[in-house]
Amino acid sequence: MKKIAALGLAGMLAAASTTAIAAKPEDAINYRQGTFSAMAWHFGTMGAMVKGKVDYDAEDFSRRAEIVSQLSKLPMEGFMPGTYSGETDALPAIEDEWDKFEGGMNALVERSAKLAEVAKTGDMDQIKPAFGEVGKTCKGCHDNFKD
User: What is the pLDDT of residue 16?
Assistant: First the structure.
């Protein structure tokens, strides 16, 4: 029974990876835009807390930081050749400067994970700088790779 379940799981994973490879450019664009929109939703609320525009709720902030950390791992799959025109603000420079772009995306994953860890402390003196680092990372890619 375990062997059958393992084979079923392997089949689903193979189908999922094949789907990503065979995705239409607009599907990849929608995928990454959706992921970034979800990240912005949570990051915006966290920013309002950091700036004192809304009351700080340590539990909610920590929950949102964890969501952003998990979401930060997803967008890279949607950046594939042929997805830098049409309904997107992503620039073709991504392909030309792939190593720089990939480095920025890896930094987003790392800094988002650090923010999620720091958020668990509830200490705004630690949270603010970690939050700022994530924001700078986002801005760095936007400045170089987004129209």
Answer: 44
